[in-house]
Amino acid sequence: MEKVHVFNAGPCILPQEAIDNAIEALKNFKGTGVSVICMSHRSKEWESVMNECRSLWKELLHIPDTHEVLFLGGGASLQFLYVAMNYLNKKAAYLDTGVWAKKALKEAKGIGEAVAVASSADKNYNYIPKGYDIPKDADYFHITTNNTIYGTEIKEDIDCPIPLIADMSSDIMSRPVDVSKYDLIYGGAQKNVGPAGVIFAIVRKESLGRVERYIPTMLDYRTHLDKDSMFNTPPVFPILVMNETLKWLKGIGGVEAIHKINIKKAELLYNEIDRNSLFVGTAAKEDRSIMNVCFVMSEGNEGLQEEFATFAKERGMMGIKGHRFVGGFRASIYNACKIEDVQALVDCMKEFESLKR
Ligand SMILES: *Cc1c(COP(=O)(O)O)cnc(C)c1O
Predict the structure, then answer these.
(1) Rg (Cα) of the chain, in Å, rounded?
(2) Candidate from 71, 128, 170, 199 with most ligand 1 atoms within 8 A of CB, to mutate
């Protein structure tokens, strides 16, 4: 079989080492002779995985003692509701940077007053709005740091006069983050830190308990904080794979090291998109994501789209079809995607160009 280069947007490529270790744990968990999925989540062997995973999160992201990391089910989409339930008293402010941001806003609107302070919908979300005012009377400001579908990214921790909440589903652990600037950072694991089935939520502990409403037990972050994410049965296998993924990340030098590699990968691909006259990038240059690279055929070459899709597929490129809201192509180059994979895609674009000249 020819080598496959995986550019799936999520679930996505994970390190082979993590997958191999997970397979071993599926067969024989920590030498117990029992598969991890048959093991009690109250066993000391399981507890050691939970503890290790929590420690790795804290170490890799330099999470201060004011914050705790939780592992829950329900997907990032359920976090949209958690956010509003746990933080919205009178009013919430959102930055509308795409589909996921809009879905988060929708859930908040179901709970109370929620407004979009700025939007990039006018240009199909191909940029990050700037120069907007954050209302001081809002309970929090919600941002989506990486817009997976459109390939735009807020690459710096913004200064925010009110509590800041971020959906970091698709760029968590891809770059250093100053966690102390956020009251909550959350996301699904399946874009960069593990398989589908578990979410992470990094909460500022003292920011909880400020709303007056009744919060259903399972939707209250305090429930899970009090029980170390083991109030109910945790998604053991996804957490185990996440733990193995973080071990791998630590082994290659952590977030700071992978950030340098991610920048290199992104530059390699964007440089080719800018150089190759057959293609054009869709995201505003200053807001280009280092995780999801979106591009289309350039003007006059639109007719070549299907041909390039087939051409790339024949050369082992998997998952580069763009989201239907943008069209064209999207290469997701998350942490575990290697520079060799990106180089293979670049070579493929060059080869296609030479055939068309
Ligand atoms: C994928 C994604 C989500 C949704 O995640 P689910 O776990 O599928 O609910 C939310 N936000 C962003 C930025 C995403 O990329």
Answers:
(1) 21
(2) 170
Which letter does DSSP use for residue 47 in this model? H
75 lines ligand 1 (CB under 6 A): yes
CA of 80 to the centre of ligand 1 (A): 10
What is d(CA 116, CA 95) in angstroms, rounded to the nearest whole number?
A: 6
What sign has the CA pseudo-torsion 333, 188, 94, 87?
negative
Q: Whose CA is nearest to atom 2 of ligand 1?
A: 169
Tokens of 59: 């170490």
Question: Do you know the residue count of the chain?
Answer: 357
Instruction: Give the nearest ligand 1 atom to 75 CA.
Output: 7
Q: How far is CA 52 from CA 57, 231, 302, in A?
A: 9, 18, 50
Largest CA distance in the chain: 66
User: CA 352 → CA 27, 295, 304, 348, distances in Å?
Assistant: 44, 15, 10, 6
Within a 13 Å sphere around the CA of 114, how many CA atoms are in the beta-carbon half?
25
**Nearest alpha carbon to residue 35 among 17, 22, 44:** 22
Give the Å distance between the CA of 97 and the centre of ligand 1.
13
Q: Which positions are catalytic?
A: 100, 167, 191
Distance 269 CA to ligand 1 centre (A): 24
Single pTM value for the model? 0.97
Name every residue whose Cβ is closer than 8 Å to that of residue 31 and which is 6 or more positions away in sequence. Answer: none
Taking only the tens place, the pLDDT of each residue in 255-306 is 999 999 999 999 999 999 999 999 999 999 999 999 999 999 999 999 999 9
Q: d(Cα 136, Cα 141) in Å, to the nearest integer? A: 10
pLDDT class for 2, splitting at 50, 70, 90?
A: confident
